[in-house]
Design a protein that fits this description.
heterodimer, A: alpha/beta, Rossmann fold, 7-stranded parallel beta sheet, disordered N terminus, B: alpha+beta, hypothetical protein PF0899 fold, 3-stranded mixed beta sheet, 3-stranded antiparallel beta sheet, 2 helices, 6 strands, about 25% helix
Chain lengths: ~325, ~110
């Protein structure tokens, strides 16, 4: 099979196609031997242009005089002439066996596929899943234990705890009587959707409830990994800097709600609440902000109301979808 | 951030594609990365070299195509260029920006043998 012509399966691009497969393959041009000093900025598109312009010329196997240097950008390296020194250096026809394979795939696509599966499982269970993200020490676990105590037995709850090591946090949650699964990420700096799917397998009787996913304490990586949650909730304690949303913009951009925690400490600190909220709105104009203290209980109502509202909206939306489906089915009769 | 996971993600995609498209060696990988993808390109190149060892992409060149960052300014009702999440609108100075492009992180194509 001549790979230069692209006569192979899949999404292979046809390169420098010539009739009868008789283009002069000078395959002895070395990819390994010489030092390609590819300028990375020198773009790819460039090379495609060469490819298109070269193809017909090559069919005739004759180059009009003068075009050689103008069209072929050859570079000499010892005895070799290299005709494809652009980014896609194999594009000059007949010079390489290499072929181009177009992929156009998101690198995090695999995680996104697992996240989509989680999301549909959450929907089937009428489960509100919240992904709690913050730096280490912002008070996520205390906020959770207090939230669980205040919500009481209103509906089923569970917690997935992400930490590099130890099951300390899951133990704290279990002490409240709510089921918890600890996921230790080992060297990992974030939970991914695959881990959450496995953790979900181990949780029971969650229908109509709330699942809190306490991510690894890290304001960077968890921003990029969708777990299938309804909302990311960023927790920022007032003992941290008010400019954190600017320092870690990806996280605050990805979150739908920011909780300013430990507000009972405000009298002892120089923390500027308004500046912090402004910073958060700069990276995410739509972010909602709540202020509370898990320790003193101040502002916890607004957080509980928010959860209740989100849960209600989800169930309403599901009812609507099911009604629509019923109507559709009835129309078939 | 987690450039190592991303580099491993690239290898996974390449290995899947190698089965589907029947190739055994990768010479070059083109990535498209937007300025808001939270990827440090230098770190990614470093990790890529590390994780490709003993794989079909060993020694492959990593070429990064920079994509532009764009946002819709609610104040000016037009598309503006941004390079960071907290950029202000270059026209009105406001922060009512909805990012519309620039968080891409994908493999565009491969040169394979």
């Amino acid at each position: 099979m001549c790979t230069v012509c692209g006569c192979s399966e899949g999404e292979t691009r046809i390169e420098g196609q010539a009739s009868g497969h008789h283009h002069p393959h000078s395959h002895d041009h070395h990819h390994d031997g010489h030092s390609h000093s590819h300028s990375h900025d020198h773009s790819h598109d460039h090379s495609h242009e060469h490819e298109q312009r070269l193809a017909p010329l090559n069919n005739n196997l004759q180059l009009p005089e003068g075009l050689d240097s103008a069209v072929f950008v050859a570079s000499a390296s010892g005895q070799d002439l290299h005709y494809g020194k652009g980014a896609a250096h194999a594009h000059a026809p007949g010079l390489s066996q290499a072929r181009m394979v177009q992929i156009e795939q998101d690198i995090l696509g695999k995680n996104d596929r697992y996240a989509a599966v989680n999301r549909s499982r959450f929907e089937q269970l009428n489960l509100l899943a919240l992904n709690l993200v913050s730096s280490p020490g912002s008070g996520k676990t205390t906020l959770l234990t207090e939230t669980i105590k205040l919500l009481g037995q209103r509906w089923p709850m569970a917690v997935i705890e992400g930490d590099q090591q130890t099951s300390n946090d899951a133990d704290r949650i279990r002490a409240t009587g709510v089921q918890a699964i600890q996921v230790n990420t080992g060297k990992g700096c974030h939970l991914d959707a695959h881990m959450v799917g496995h953790a979900l397998d181990r949780l029971e009787q969650l229908d109509g409830g709330t699942l809190f996913i306490e991510n690894v304490g890290n304001l960077v990586c968890p921003a990029a990994f969708d777990l299938g949650e309804a909302h990311k909730v960023a927790i920022l304690s007032v003992t941290e800097g008010e400019d954190k949303p600017l320092k870690y913009p990806d996280m605050f951009h990805a979150a739908d709600l920011m909780i300013l925690n430990k507000v009972d400490l405000l009298p002892y600190l120089d923390f500027d609440v308004d500046a912090c909220i402004d910073a958060a709105r700069r990276v995410n104009p739509n972010i909602q902000v709540l202020q509370c203290s898990a320790r003193s209980g101040e502002g916890m109502d607004s957080w509980l109301n928010w959860i209740e509202q989100q849960r209600g909206e989800r169930i309403q939306a599901r009812i609507q979808r099911l009604k629509d489906q019923m109507l559709q089915l009835e129309s078939l009769l | 951030m987690h450039e190592m996971s991303i580099a491993e993600g690239i290898i996974q995609v390449i290995e899947e594609q190698a089965r589907v498209q029947a190739f055994s060696k990768v010479n070059a990988v083109w990535l498209e990365i937007g300025p808001l993808a939270s990827v440090e390109k230098e770190a990614l190149s470093f990790c890529f070299d590390a994780v490709t060892r003993h794989t079909l992409a060993e020694g492959a060149r990593l070429q990064i195509i920079d994509l532009p960052g764009q946002a819709w300014c609610l104040g000016c009702s037009q598309t503006v260029a941004v390079t960071q999440r907290f950029d202000s609108c270059p026209h009105c100075g406001g922060y009512q920006l909805q990012v519309t492009a620039g968080d891409e992180l994908r493999i565009k194509e491969l040169e394979v043998v």
